[in-house]
């Protein structure tokens, strides 16, 4: 059994661009060991965030954003990344935008089952560099992708990556098909957890 949901909202004017997003995936499975023993497996993941870009001059902007992640796969009760920096809209019109951004971030993490070798909660300073591309008004196609890299400034050798790919196509009678893929990579995750956490979703729906 699986429950999933996604929301993505945005607003852009001549002076400011605001974004808000959230997604959740909760799955339940049973693994039969023998006739009398059954293991129950639950995976729970949610992420959310909000950000604002303040236009400075032409297509240059300052940004402030906070991203939250809970992942049972990576044993994260909570990862909160607060970042600020500057960027530029290389393309920005009524159909699409493409931007690049860079700056600094503060990463707070709280783990589910920390061992004696781990610091919990875990705080670290990071730099970030990223790019986003979104198509929102080209016929029946809607498309969003982004990738951000976070080299740590306080933990030697640590590097994180957040990647998003989301495409939605309406093929007639207000029916649409969508594919969503998210990936989080951490070169130094919590002890005993996988460095990579990803979700792949396909959707068929009807738009009012």
Question: Helix and strand layout, with pairings?
Answer:
Elements: E1 2-12, E2 16-32, E3 38-57, E4 60-71, E5 76-92, E6 96-111, E7 122-138, E8 141-151, E9 159-172, E10 175-186, E11 196-206
Level of helix content? under 10%
- Order of secondary-structure elements: EEEEEEEEEEE
- Unreliable segments (pLDDT under 50, ≥5 consecutive)? none
End-to-end gap: 27 Å
**Strands, total number:** 11
Q: How would a textbook summarize the main sheet? A: 11 strands, antiparallel
Question: How would you write the strand order of the largest sheet?
Answer: 1-2-3-4-5-6-7-8-9-10-11
Shape: flat
Mean pLDDT: 89
Describe this structure in words.
The structure is a single chain. The chain has strands at residues 2-12, 16-32, 38-57, 60-71, 76-92, 96-111, 122-138, 141-151, 159-172, 175-186, 196-206. With 208 residues, the protein is mainly β. It has an eleven-stranded antiparallel β-sheet, with no helix packed on it. The protein is flat, with a radius of gyration of 19 Å.
């Amino acid at each position: 059994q699986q429950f999933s949901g996604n929301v993505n909202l945005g607003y852009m004017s001549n002076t400011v661009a605001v974004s808000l997003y959230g997604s959740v995936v909760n799955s339940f499975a049973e693994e039969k060991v023998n006739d009398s023993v059954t293991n129950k497996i639950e995976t729970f993941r949610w992420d959310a965030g909000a950000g604002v870009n303040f236009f400075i001059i032409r297509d240059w902007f300052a940004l402030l954003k906070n991203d939250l992640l809970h992942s049972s796969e990576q044993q994260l009760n909570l990862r909160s990344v607060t970042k600020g920096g500057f960027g530029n809209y290389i393309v920005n019109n009524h159909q699409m935008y493409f931007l690049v951004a860079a700056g600094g971030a503060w990463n707070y993490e709280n783990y589910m089952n920390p061992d004696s070798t781990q610091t919990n909660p875990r705080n670290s300073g990071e730099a970030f560099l990223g790019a986003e591309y979104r198509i929102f008004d080209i016929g029946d196609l809607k498309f969003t992708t982004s990738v951000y890299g976070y080299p740590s400034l306080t933990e030697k050798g640590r590097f994180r990556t957040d990647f998003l790919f989301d495409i939605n196509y309406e093929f007639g009678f207000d029916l649409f098909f969508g594919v969503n893929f998210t990936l989080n990579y951490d070169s130094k995750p919590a002890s005993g957890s996988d460095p990579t956490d990803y979700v792949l979703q396909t959707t068929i729906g009807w738009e009012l």
